[in-house]
Design brief:
The complex is a heterodimer of chains A (about 240) and B (about 475). Chain A is of the alpha/beta class and about 240 residues long. Chain A folds into 2 domains: about 160 residues, 3-Layer(aba) Sandwich (Rossmann fold); about 60 residues, no CATH class. Helices cover about 40% and strands about 25% of the residues of chain A. In chain B, about 75% of the residues lie in helices and about 0% in strands. Chain B folds into 2 domains: about 230 residues, no CATH class; about 210 residues, no CATH class. The radius of gyration of chain B is 23 Å and the shape is globular. Chain B has about 475 residues and is an all-alpha fold. Classes of the chains: A alpha/beta (about 240), B mainly alpha (about 475). The interface between A and B is large, with 39 and 40 residues. The structure holds adenosine-5'-diphosphate (ADP) and magnesium ion. The site of adenosine-5'-diphosphate has 12 residues of chain A, from strand 2 and helix 1.
Chain lengths: ~240, ~475
């Protein structure tokens, strides 16, 4: 199997906090990979490092064979990204924002892709409303469309379902499952373990920047065992170290 | 409800101090105190050239301008905060979900701005002057009166900015009518022989104190503020409007740009935020109006072309701040999901800036012709645009994508003043010798090119904060 994401001793220090501490892990092609951990464990930092938004303090990472420090723009042109917090530009309409993304990524069929997403996530009625006047849920839909507009072979999504209602969560889960079936790879971060157990094929658990465990979800669940029990036992152990 | 006000004050401090470091931010009042203190010692030197009354006029006009600009900036701040820190972080914004009326929040907002900038700007200035006053033989009643009248000038500016911008969002026609009315009042006062300055109550109060004038000046501020609050429209009423696609046609129009779509986006930001008109008025025409007025006081001492070229230089400095217009609604965050580097975004902004320079260019043409100095159009234009592009380069080098740092970080601000001031004084001196020497300022854009390239490389290496 090919490693789509390969991380070696990756470290990120902000002032006196070590957000990531010598993490080594990899993600194979076709995986729906879940990066798990409590708040502040370094998940967002990992995604920012992998997409070249911040630079590592130590170690190295390659994404789709490109070194994230040497060629961050190259990495970002290949992957799709949904950040945790960023919102689309205030004064563009939803439609204009997607056209902007299409123009910068040089996507030939922006209009078709856009029309499909408006229909699929049911927000076509908001296409000509300014982003600043959109609800959180609709903004998140727009961020989804933005990330998948160029059908990337790898998408990195920070807390994907957090702003969606239960029905939309199902739609999105289905989409992600279907997307990896086509041979693409998805990398999500979440602190909601039920979601991870339901949709992820592989996982890694972070706590205070350290990698506690990584493996296949199927290996630690099943036969009445759940991911959250495994997670809690690890975290408790980690807490005593 | 006082608690709400206090938390807004705290928020303001927190925003500024986390953005720029609380120590360097606290240095601002110290800097202003020092300027006023040293300025006071220059008074005996200046007095033979510039009569005391004119100096008072200039000072009051500057504080009026300060109020106007801070008022305009404060109203935009909510939008800016929303962009930079995410939707929920501005308290005034979050408070919309609390059971508080829009008007109440706005009132708090106004009071907060007033108190905050009063402590930051007005008080240190007067204090600096007051401490120096005994040494230069000025009675202490002058700084005491100054504290009152400068505060009133500042408040008049603040209230006028709130009033004008609320009228503008209400109705463009009403806004035009108000502008015409102000102009007509100024002309009428001028014709009546009292001079337009007589309408400026805080100054009239400084010249001759009377309780009636004090009352009138206070009433003016209160009436404007009350009208603004009465005219406010709840934000929810203006929501969810539908807009037609402007991006596609604009992208086509900017096809020669490095990133046509980014240029189109900046253009749309300017129009939809209302800052195309608002900024041109408050951050360009108004300051220049005040500067022109101050310079015209030099009329008896300098030939017409020197005043014109001096004005061209200052227009260039103001024009270089148009870079702020292009960056105030942006954080790098949304770009960071796209295959763009900081350098790409900076280059795109610089191109947008070049287009905006049509405004100062047209303005200088107009002023030169109106001043009857058309023979010196070319040097004036070259000087203005050279200074502007050089100023842009220095701004890009010092501040990258967040030029508003200049307003808050005195360390950066002093560097900026030095980098801009030294060459400017040189070119002003040259152009006074012979107006055509101003053409030598063409070396400024050349130097600017070099500085800007280094700036772009510098910020591209840096990790962008606020991700
Ligand atoms: N820009 C930053 N500056 C300083 N500390 C940061 C910054 N970003 C994250 N951190 C710190 O790094 C740690 C990991 O944060 P983050 O990656 O956001 O965690 P998670 O996404 O798992 O909640 C936290 O302790 C956080 O406070
Ligand atoms: Mg996070």
């Amino acid at each position: 199997m090919n490693a789509i994401v390969d991380v070696q001793n990756l470290t990120k220090v902000y002032g006196d906090t070590t957000a990531l501490d010598t993490v080594t892990m990899s993600v194979e092609q076709g995986a729906l990979f879940g990066l798990l951990g409590p708040n502040g464990s370094g998940k967002t930092t990992m995604i920012k490092l992998l997409t070249g938004q911040v630079r590592p303090s130590g170690g190295a990472a390659t994404v789709l064979g490109l070194d994230v420090t040497a060629d961050p723009v190259g990495v970002r042109s290949l992957v799709g990204i949904i950040p945790e917090q960023e919102t689309p530009p205030s004064f563009l309409t939803a439609e204009e924002y997607l056209r902007l993304v299409g123009a910068i990524r040089k996507i030939p069929d922006t209009e078709e892709q856009m029309a499909w997403w408006f229909e699929y996530l049911e927000f076509g009625d908001k296409r000509d409303v300014l982003c600043k006047d959109l609800s959180r849920g609709t903004r998140q839909k727009l961020m989804f469309a933005q990330a998948f507009l160029h059908c990337p072979v790898l998408a990195l999504i920070d807390e994907p379902l957090i702003n969606f209602d239960p029905i939309m969560q199902e739609t999105v889960k289905e989409y992600l499952a279907g997307y990896v079936k086509k041979g693409n790879t998805i990398f999500i971060s979440t602190h909601i373990l039920e979601i991870a157990e339901e949709i992820c094929s592989d996982f890694a658990i972070l706590q205070r920047g350290k990698l506690l465990s990584t493996g296949r979800v199927a290996e630690v669940t099943g036969a009445g065992r759940h991911l959250n029990e495994y997670f809690l036992s690890l975290i408790r152990k980690g807490g005593h170290v | 409800m006082f608690e709400f006000f206090l938390s807004m004050m705290k928020e303001e401090w927190r925003i500024h101090s986390t953005m720029f470091g609380s120590l360097s931010f606290a240095l601002y009042p110290v800097l202003i105190f020092a300027i006023a203190f040293m300025g006071a010692f220059l008074l005996p030197l200046i007095r033979p050239i510039l009569p005391f009354g004119d100096l008072a006029l200039v000072t009051h006009a500057l504080f009026l301008l300060l109020g106007l600009m801070i008022g305009a900036f404060g109203l935009l701040m909510n939008e800016v905060m929303e962009r930079r820190f995410g939707q929920s972080s501005s308290l005034a914004y979050a408070a919309r979900s609390l059971p508080l009326s829009e008007r109440f929040i706005f009132l708090n907002f106004v009071v907060k701005d007033t108190v905050y900038y009063f402590v930051l700007w007005v008080l240190p200035f007067v204090a600096g002057f007051a401490v120096a006053a005994p040494f230069v033989g000025i009675p202490l009643t002058v700084p005491a009166l100054l504290l009152l009248t400068l505060s009133l000038s500042f408040l008049t500016g603040l209230a006028a900015a709130f009033f004008l911008s609320i009228v503008y969002t209400r109705s463009k026609w009403l806004f035009a009518a108000v502008c015409v009315f102000i102009a007509a009042a100024a002309v009428a006062a001028h014709l009546a022989g009292t001079g337009a300055v007589a309408l400026f109550l805080p100054l009239a109060l400084f010249r001759t104190f009377s309780w009636e004038t004090l009352l009138a000046a206070c009433a003016f501020v209160i009436v404007l503020a009350a009208l603004s609050i009465a005219l406010m429209r709840p934000a929810s009423a203006a929501r969810a409007k539908h807009h037609r696609d402007m991006l596609t046609p604009l992208t086509r129009r900017f096809s020669l740009f490095p990133y046509p779509a980014l240029a189109a986006k900046d253009c749309i930001d300017l129009f939809r935020s209302g800052s195309a008109v608002g900024q041109t008025l408050f951050s360009f025409l108004l300051p220049l109006g005040v500067i022109w007025f101050c310079l015209s006081l030099l009329g008896p001492f300098l030939p017409g072309y020197s005043i014109l070229l001096l004005f061209a230089v200052l227009t260039g400095v103001i024009a270089s701040t148009m870079y702020i217009w292009l960056t105030m609604f942006d954080s790098f965050g949304p770009y960071a999901c796209l295959p763009l580097s900081v350098a790409d975004v900076l280059k795109s902004k610089i191109c947008g800036f070049a287009v905006l320079q049509l405004i100062p260019a047209a303005f200088i043409v107009l002023v030169t012709v109106l001043a009857g100095e058309a023979a010196y159009l070319l040097p004036a234009l070259v000087l203005c645009l050279s200074v502007s592009f050089y100023g842009l380069a220095v701004t890009v080098y010092l501040t990258g994508l967040s030029p508003s740092v200049l307003l808050y970080d005195p360390r950066v601000f002093v560097l900026y003043l030095l980098a801009i001031g030294v060459p400017l004084v040189a070119f002003i001196a040259l152009s006074f010798m012979n107006p055509w020497y101003a053409m030598m300022s063409l070396v400024l854009p050349a130097a600017g090119w070099w500085v800007a390239r280094r700036g772009v490389a510098k910020w591209d290496r840096k990790e962008v904060a606020g991700f």
